[in-house]
Write a structure and sequence with these properties.
With 316 residues, the protein is an alpha/beta fold. It has 13 helices and eight strands. The structure holds adenosine-5'-triphosphate (ATP) and magnesium ion.
């Protein structure tokens, strides 16, 4: 089976699940409100991986960063917020039986929807859950929020792999996350779309924009100079027109092992740990662990749960 065929199969299975989901959702099964609960003490570091343009390497970065962080002793869960596409599923080589909708509508525990992938990385599929927010009752949303708080207390790092571009859900995920990694490639369209995303974030962040730092990953570059050029191009316009800040987190070279590893459904950090691509991602993980987000940020932004609340309110 080639990669395209495998992807098609996975998408079909995912669509079939979502179709079934819709049928069940139509029956409006209600999940009871949870008992009041105290805020959990442990709170994951929430890292959102995003991009202006699609196909620039968000999922590759997410999964490999997860593996690299795991190698350094961190527990990691990836939340696939890229609804409809089966990206991480394909890279993991595993189809999750349940997704977030099953938590909302069928009383599944959040632990039941986490599948374990390579290196014991947890993976949770958003399914059609968040797209359906507009149709949910307040009780259902509150229930989801409680469950997501639980998720954040279960792991050291929660990586959110978002869809590309400027949709409301992507923006809310980004605004609610204390750390944002922006993946960009040297293609001119990737650079302009990254700027468009930064501009929207800047406009939507309100008073918080002065404290907002977005960390750039230059992916699929041919040299350090090309990565530096890419960063400079964005930095010039960001400094001139926006209040938020852009930092350079690191570069990942173009590496054929990256696409080879997707075919093999084994992330490059496992299949080719000594390759240039894997080493670059290892350096990025190292740098991330060396920089801890400001406490102010963690207090101000309340993670996934806060994003869901905002999305729900914006749809009402
Ligand atoms: N550094 C790299 N070198 C070579 N190929 C790469 C590199 N990074 C990613 N790719 C390839 O680019 C393609 C897109 O990568 P990926 O699926 O991670 O992007 P994405 O941003 O998650 O896409 P989408 O927006 O569709 O979710 C894949 O085929 C992947 O193998
Ligand atoms: Mg992806």
């Amino acid at each position: 089976m080639d990669q395209a065929e495998r992807l098609r199969n996975l998408v079909q299975q995912s669509n079939a699940r979502n179709g079934l989901q819709q049928e069940r959702d139509d029956k409006k099964s209600m999940t009871p409100l949870p008992a009041a609960r105290t805020v959990p003490a442990k709170r994951a570091r929430v890292i959102t991986v995003t991009s202006g343009k699609g196909g620039v390497g968000k999922s590759s970065v997410s999964i490999n960063l997860a593996i690299q962080l795991k190698k350094r002793g961190k527990d990691v869960i990836i939340f696939d917020a890229d609804f409809g596409l089966a990206n991480i599923e394909v890279m993991f080589g595993a189809v999750p039986k349940y997704n977030l909708s099953d938590v909302i509508f069928h009383g599944k525990d959040i632990r039941d929807v986490i599948v374990k992938g390579p290196s014991d990385i947890g993976f949770i599929s958003g399914g059609s859950g968040i797209n359906g927010l507009g149709n949910m009752t307040r009780e259902q949303v509150m229930y989801l929020v409680e469950k997501l708080k639980e998720l954040e207390s279960m792991t050291d790092v929660l990586i959110i792999d978002t869809g590309a571009g400027i949709s409301d859900s992507v923006i809310e995920f980004v605004l609610s996350s204390e750390e944002v990694l922006l993946v960009t490639t040297p293609e001119p369209t990737s650079i302009t779309d990254s700027y468009a995303l930064l501009k929207t974030l800047n406009n939507r962040a309100g008073d918080m924009r002065e404290n907002m730092v977005v960390k750039l990953i230059a992916n699929r570059v041919s040299s350090r100079e090309e990565a530096q050029n890419l960063f400079n191009k964005l930095q010039v316009v960001v400094q001139r027109f926006l209040k938020l800040k852009l930092d350079f987190l690191g570069m990942v070279p173009w590496d054929t092992n990256m696409s080879k590893s997707i075919m093999q459904q084994k992330p490059i950090s496992i299949a080719y740990p000594e390759s240039d691509g894997a080493r670059a991602l290892s350096n990025i993980a190292e740098r991330l662990l060396g920089s801890v987000p400001a406490q102010d940020d963690i207090v101000e932004k309340r993670g996934l749960a806060a994003a869901i609340m905002k999305m729900f309110h914006s749809k009402k």
